[in-house]
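=== RUN LOG ===
request id: a7f3
mode: sequence -> structure
chains: 1
length: 345
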Amino acid sequence: MKVAMLAPISWRVPPRHYGPWERVVSLLTEGLVQRGVDVTLFATADSLTKARLVAVCPRPYSEDPALDAKVWECLHISACFERAAEFDLIHNHFDFLPLSYSGLVSTPVVTTIHGFSSERILPVFQKYDGRVHYVAISDADRRPDLHYAATVYHGIPLDEFTLREEPGDYLLFFGRIHPDKGAAEAIQVARLAGRRLLLAGVIQDQGYFDREVAPYLDGERVCYLGSVGPERRDALLGGAYALLHLINFDEPFGLSMIEAMACGTPVIATRRGSVPEVVLDGETGFVVSRAEDALAVLPSVSMLERPHIRNHVAERFSRERMVEGYIKVYEEVLGGQNRGAAHSS
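=== RESULT ===
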């Protein structure tokens, strides 16, 4: 099986610090290569992979303002589709734009929908529904007006995360600094609880950071660590008393939740989007209706069994399970194509 893996080019594959889509692409690509799948990765030239790398964009455009994102996106996507005949299947992780190329090639296209950034992009998904095989990253993120080949949860390598059986003393916010992700709510909960809060993540909304986060930073009780990369992620997640994921939007999946739980760290999250699919309420954390309700469950966090929390990730959200899920999708898509060809002849 020859697979073209079309990655985003906003960040490197794997990302140096931030880049959840690119991280999933990297984990899936390397997992497929381990399984003997012939993968060609279309990504930035500085990407690291054991697959065959094809790159036209020299580096991530989010790291180099001199690069025009639209220009390099066009060159990057076209580089993949112009070679479509070389592959059995194209796996698109680049959102909606590559869908508009799918009608120009006979190679089947699988598209992982990493969430819907806006209702305005739906017409593209609707137009190519049926031609492109869509994969959801949670059941909550499925649109009722689209057809899906499967739901495949993200998976992570357990060996990158260390189980810490004793809870730490600080609360943690780990995600992009944006109103959607609830940094302000995490600060208020920590202040009311009298607990130290560490915040880590890229600043996606500078105005929000200046208004809702910066005034509370004192270097002691509330600390902003910047964007934390893989080398610090394990210790930071594992050393927390709990991860606060008090979101204000419908979460498509939430990688940070399973990364925290892989360390045995419980998650307190708002009941939005995928959260009830990822967090077992009362077992691996607490699912609350409102951010204010997080305060009431904080004392119960210490009673949760951290090895059980890690086991939950091992059973449902391992990289092996994700890879197996996508191989099954590929086989079904290619099997269906072959059956269709035999029928038409």
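=== NOTES ===
The domain at 2-155+318-344 is CATH 3.40.50.2000 (Rossmann fold).
DSSP finds eleven helices and 13 strands in the chain.
=== END ===
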